[in-house]
């Protein structure tokens, strides 16, 4: 076979291009997003160096602007339910940063609704676990000023969604757990960024019947360090105990810190909570919605474990909705609670009153 006729490797291009764009954003470099003949250049304010911010302004002849997502715009008093763009001409890196996520920022004088292409840059930032404060410029008519920068078509961003459910089982190994006995840790690899995700199989659940499960998103502060600001560590350990008491089940442990925003944004939000904001308003100050977690990975993992019907230990209705959307039958739900403390009571109250979590908080408070 001649070299010219040899077959070439075929890769799933959409997710590769998305991951390359995500990597460039995290390195603080511009990414060009295109749709048809139109192109916008974007850098993430969360990562870009001040010197490159200034260079971006110069190259775009000060025609750059800052994307303010709808939650951030609302916190600034802009009467809109859409993302907006405000001009950055003449503003320094520090001034742009204050406008993007500082508590004391003033409402911008000028702003206009962001179109779909500009808003997609925020989704790329979220995939990169960065704040969705994007510095943008329309570079359609700017020739090759951004030649050499990573370029991605907007259709690729939409096409990468299929990768979220593409997982493979890597290994299954027995691990003895305190107070629970032997459990199996099953490792899955896949999704965007090829993350490793973990399923903890407690006991010997019968997968031909309804299997008790819990979906638990990672919380470094609560799960590992015993933070009193949340109930996550208690929910993790109590969830495993409930699965044991049920005769066996599966805990899906998902790598999506800070309700899917990443540890950096989570710590910024913690700082705002120390100043009196609740968790939802703190995230909104950073341009984030109340919950960015997704559950395609959980659906894929359950299917690879041959589980199609579940009883879920959760207080969160969005987890149930995510499972049903993925075709998993949810036969029943039961709560899983943690200890109510002076430090986490307001957090739990916010989850109940503003995020719709199914929790009888007053009974839990009375029981302490």
What does this structure look like?
By secondary structure, the chain is α/β, with parallel strands linked by helices. Helix 13 (317-325) links the parallel strand 13 (309-313) and strand 14. The chain has helices spanning 13-26, 50-59, 70-75, 93-101, 116-127, 154-159, 220-224, 232-245, 257-260, 263-274, 279-285, 296-304, 317-325, 345-353, 361-367, and strands at residues 31-35, 38-44, 65-68, 84-87, 112-113, 134-138, 150-153, 167-177, 181-190, 195-203, 211-217, 248-254, 309-313, 329-334. The longest helix has 14 residues, at 13-26. It has a seven-stranded mixed sheet.
Number of strands: 14
The percent of residues in helical segments reads 25-40%
Q: Structural class given helices, strands, pairing? A: alpha/beta
Q: Overall 3D geometry?
A: globular
The rounded distance between the terminal residues' Cα atoms is 76 Å
User: What Rg do the Cα atoms give?
Assistant: 23 Å
Uncertain residue ranges = none
Q: Major β-sheet, in short?
A: 7 strands, mixed
Provide the succession of SSEs.
HEEHEHEHEHEEHEEEEHHEHHHHEHEHH
Number of helices: 15
Strand content: 15-25%
Topology:
Layout: H1 13-26, E1 31-35, E2 38-44, H2 50-59, E3 65-68, H3 70-75, E4 84-87, H4 93-101, E5 112-113, H5 116-127, E6 134-138, E7 150-153, H6 154-159, E8 167-177, E9 181-190, E10 195-203, E11 211-217, H7 220-224, H8 232-245, E12 248-254, H9 257-260, H10 263-274, H11 279-285, H12 296-304, E13 309-313, H13 317-325, E14 329-334, H14 345-353, H15 361-367
Parallel strand pairs: 1-7, 11-12, 11-13, 13-14
Antiparallel strand pairs: 1-2, 2-6, 3-4, 3-6, 4-5, 8-9, 9-10, 10-12
Helix pairs in contact: 10-11
């Amino acid at each position: 076979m001649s070299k010219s006729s040899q077959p070439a490797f075929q890769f799933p291009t959409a997710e590769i291009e998305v991951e390359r764009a995500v990597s460039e954003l995290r390195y603080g470099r511009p990414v060009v997003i295109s749709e048809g003949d139109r192109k916008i250049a974007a850098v993430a304010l969360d990562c870009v160096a001040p010197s490159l911010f200034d260079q971006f302004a110069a190259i775009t002849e000060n025609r750059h602007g800052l994307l303010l997502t709808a939650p951030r715009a609302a916190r600034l008093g802009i009467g809109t339910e859409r993302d907006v763009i405000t001009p950055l001409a003449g503003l320094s890196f520090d001034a742009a940063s204050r406008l993007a996520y500082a508590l004391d920022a003033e409402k911008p004088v000028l702003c206009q609704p962001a179109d779909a292409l500009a808003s997609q840059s925020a989704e790329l930032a979220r995939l990169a676990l960065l704040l969705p404060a994007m510095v943008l410029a329309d570079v359609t008519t700017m020739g090759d000023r951004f030649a050499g920068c990573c370029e991605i078509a907007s259709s690729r961003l939409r096409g990468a969604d299929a990768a979220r459910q593409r997982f493979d089982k890597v290994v299954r190994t027995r691990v003895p757990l305190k107070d629970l006995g032997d459990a199996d840790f099953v490792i899955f690899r896949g999704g965007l960024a090829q993350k490793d995700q973990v399923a903890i199989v407690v006991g010997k659940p019968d997968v031909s019947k309804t299997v008790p499960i819990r979906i638990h998103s990672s919380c470094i502060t609560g799960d590992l360090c015993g933070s009193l600001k949340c109930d996550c560590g208690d929910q993790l350990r109590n969830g495993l105990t409930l699965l044991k008491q049920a005769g066996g089940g599966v805990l899906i442990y998902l790598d999506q810190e800070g309700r899917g925003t990443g540890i950096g944004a989570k710590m910024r939000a913690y700082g705002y909570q120390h100043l009196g904001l609740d968790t939802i308003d703190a995230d909104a100050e950073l341009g984030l919605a109340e919950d960015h977690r997704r559950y395609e990975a959980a659906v894929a993992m359950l299917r690879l474990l041959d589980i199609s019907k579940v009883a879920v230990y959760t207080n969160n209705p969005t987890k149930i909705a995510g499972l049903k959307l993925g075709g998993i039958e949810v036969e029943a739900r039961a709560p899983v609670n943690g200890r109510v403390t002076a430090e986490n009571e307001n957090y739990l109250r916010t989850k109940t009153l503003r995020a719709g979590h199914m929790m009888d908080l007053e009974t839990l408070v009375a029981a302490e």
